[in-house]
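Let's study a protein:

===
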Amino acid sequence: MCNLSEGIYERGMSQGMAQGAENKLIEVIMNLWNAGTDMATIKIASGWTEEQIMKVVKKNKL
């Protein structure tokens, strides 16, 4: 592969991995929320703000 192709590949891999990690964190947040975990604990576990968590909950509610 040429340097340009390698750079594009590496950037794509990095973005894909970051998106995968965020998707997994969203799944964990929803599992905690659905289990009745309090907001303070979810904030600590996720490192996200209450506003970010509530946005995820509202978007992913069953």
